[in-house]
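Researcher: Let's walk through a ligand-bound prediction step by step. First, I give you the protein sequence. Second, the SMILES string for magnesium ion. Third, you return the three-dimensional complex as structure tokens. Ready?
Model: Ready.
Researcher: Here are steps one and two:
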Amino acid sequence: MGTPFEWAIEEIRRERVRQEAKWGRQLHENRTWLTIALEEFGEIAKAMLERGEVRKETIQTAAVLVAWLEDSFERGEFAHEETSEFNDSAISVENQAKLRIKPTEAPT
Ligand SMILES: [Mg+2]
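Model: Step three, the predicted complex:
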């Protein structure tokens, strides 16, 4: 049941849970996240060249990008960027404090 979109999101969610169980909460600078993400993209290319598990590697790459976004939300990084109704302005002042985001950094 479900749509391809729902399957994809569910696979990414499962991979995030797996990553968190394996590595714990990951907090990195953006350049480190970018390096991790590019390594994962490289694994997609390698899987394509070697008839490996392209879908699995693609899911892992997407999950790393999600983890990077999670970390950026928690750090308030890129908070000036308009994203969606779920951007940092939707985070209460109380939760901003819990997430270490200064209220002044939240978009107005
Ligand atoms: Mg991989």
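Researcher: And what stands out?
Model: Residues 4-105 form one domain. Residues 90 and 106 are 9 Å apart (CA to CA).
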